[in-house]
């Protein structure tokens, strides 16, 4: 794992550490069993994320997204998130592979939105005019079909992945109308 991945994992660990300590020393066997189930699920999800990532920047960004959602950094109360990595969608006979698809639902307002998150490494995006044209065309097709698109450069992600992970979650929370603390 690289330094950024380790940093995200460390911050997640620090965030939950007080709770973990209470659970691990608890005489409540059911609580410890629930903890085992939760950690197994989390480890499995992270393993799948790393396995599906097609680039280091996608791996790092995915860890940040899960970190932001799992630790509820935006204090959202009414939004359910579903993060799907490397999702293929077919539109008008063409197949598009999305780095991340976030489906979000506000349980109060019943609003639903789909966000495409693209992690653009220089090698495959905007290195040539043809690559830039394909990305812009793809964005227009996806937008016409109801997707909201957020693109981040590899340099942005490597420089401050937590900042951009937080930006994604804040954008979803704001656009779906959730208030901090569920107000």
Automatic annotation (TrEMBL):
InterPro entries: Restrct_endonuc-II-like, Restrct_endonuc-II-like_dom. It comes from Desulfitobacterium hafniense (Desulfitobacterium frappieri). This is Restriction endonuclease type II-like domain-containing protein. The lineage of its organism: Bacteria, Bacillati, Bacillota, Clostridia, Eubacteriales. It comes from the Bacteria. Coiled coil: none annotated. Residues 92-164 form the Restriction endonuclease type II-like domain. Pfam families: MTES_1575.
């Amino acid at each position: 794992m690289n330094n950024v991945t380790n940093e995200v994992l460390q911050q997640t660990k620090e965030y939950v550490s007080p709770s973990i300590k209470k659970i691990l020393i608890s005489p409540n066997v059911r609580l410890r069993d629930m903890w085992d189930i939760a950690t197994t699920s989390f480890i499995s999800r992270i393993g799948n994320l790393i396995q599906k990532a097609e680039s280091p920047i996608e791996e790092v960004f995915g860890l940040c997204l899960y970190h932001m959602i799992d630790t509820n950094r935006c204090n959202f109360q009414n939004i359910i998130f579903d993060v799907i990595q490397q999702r293929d969608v077919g539109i008008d006979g063409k197949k598009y592979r999305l780095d991340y698809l976030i489906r979000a639902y506000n349980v109060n307002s019943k609003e639903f939105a789909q966000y495409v998150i693209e992690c653009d490494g220089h090698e495959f995006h905007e290195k040539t005019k043809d690559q830039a044209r394909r990305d812009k065309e793809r964005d227009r097709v996806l937008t016409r079909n109801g997707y909201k698109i957020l693109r981040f450069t590899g340099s942005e992600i490597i420089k401050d992945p937590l900042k951009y992970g937080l930006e994604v979650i804040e954008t979803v929370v704001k656009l779906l109308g959730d208030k901090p603390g569920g107000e």
